[in-house]
Amino acid sequence: MSRPIEAVIHSAALKHNYQLIKQRAPQARAFAVIKANAYGHGVERVVNTLNDADGFAILEFATAIAMRQAGVTQPILLLEGVFSVDELQQCAQHNIMLAIHEPRHLDWLRTTVLQAPVQIFLKLNTGMNRLGFVAENAPELVAQLRAMPNVASVTLMTHFATADEPAKGITQQWARFRAQSELLDCPCSLANSAAIFAYPEVHGDWVRPGIALYGSSPFAHQSAEQLGLLPAMSLRSRIIAVQNLEAGDTVGYGATFIADRPMRIGVVACGYADGYPRHAPTGTPIVVDGQVTRLLGRVSMDMLCVDLTELPNAQIDSVVELWGQSLSIDAVAQKAGTIAYELMCAIANRVSVQLD
Ligand SMILES: *Cc1c(COP(=O)(O)O)cnc(C)c1O
């Protein structure tokens, strides 16, 4: 047997989550957001599993092209657009939709010879202040784009900063967007996972679910389970050693955990070089043989330690779940002071991935 850590990707959960999102946004088409290697789940795996998705949204240009070459026929949207004229030409050649957010993108569209017209998502800055044109310039921009032979269609797009926080909400961004979209006869795309669940009024023509697809909640105040989402990834490993401690013995680097009584601990083949968060503190939940126990001491590069004192049957080769079907990734992320997005994206190359 090789080093026992593996990430299991649950294809039935991915399909279930996509369908649930479709039910929540029944009038819209849904881009499955597959940037960052499908949030660590593997682009190819997710695209093959969601082979009947309405479309896919991604940032990585080379992967978008590879998807077309692999025979994906659905709409593909480049969420951050293109970074050169050459990429723009290849988008036209491979029928890839692109966001534009910067004046130079307009110049490229105006001056480049393309094999075919491209479908544009005009990104409007309504308050996030990352990417996008000043929202109030939309009518002028749409007029310019419509006059360009290289432009096949224009969809208005924006992105919400606080759709996951009820106290902050989307009111201002939504008002700024709507003031423009009402003037223009364009399809619209606004909603990330949080907005899909919280604000049906912004579903528009295309929703853009990412995190919900992978079975994590976009909200701090509502669990994935409450939303009906199923975890799409389980990170599993095994116990590779057992140690018996006396009171006063310490565990791991920095000796930050000190036993206050005799204890039995297990060493798990999983560390921060596998993608487990180093900042997870003592007490972070971990499941061993189906029972919840806790992390002890510092996470090291290749190992971490768990409390087996109350699990007398646990031993070498006992199955450990770091997160997944028996333990919510959101609970682990919260303990580690981060979000599930970061944990999913951090799964390291050395972790083998299985599809079930
Ligand atoms: C990543 C991304 C999404 C998906 O966001 P989630 O919170 O994961 O649903 C949607 N739209 C844009 C523009 C994105 O970059």
From TrEMBL:
GO CC annotation: cytosol
Protein species of origin: Chitinibacter fontanus
N6-(pyridoxal phosphate)lysine found at: 35
Any GO molecular function: alanine racemase activity
Cofactor (UniProt): pyridoxal 5'-phosphate
Entry EC number(s): 5.1.1.1
Listed pathway(s): Amino-acid biosynthesis; D-alanine biosynthesis; D-alanine from L-alanine: step 1/1
Known catalytic reactions: L-alanine = D-alanine
Annotated SUPFAM superfamilies: Alanine racemase C-terminal domain-like, PLP-binding barrel
UniProtKB keywords: Isomerase, Pyridoxal phosphate
Keyword field contains Signal: no
Biological processes per GO annotation: D-alanine biosynthetic process
Active site: 35 (proton acceptor), 253 (proton acceptor)
Binding site for substrate: 130, 301
Protein's recorded name: Alanine racemase
Protein family per UniProt: Belongs to the alanine racemase family.
Residue intervals of the Alanine racemase C-terminal domain: 232-356
InterPro entries: Ala_racemase, Ala_racemase/Decarboxylase_C, Ala_racemase_C, Ala_racemase_N, Ala_racemase_pyridoxalP-BS, PLP-binding_barrel
Function: Catalyzes the interconversion of L-alanine and D-alanine. May also act on other amino acids.
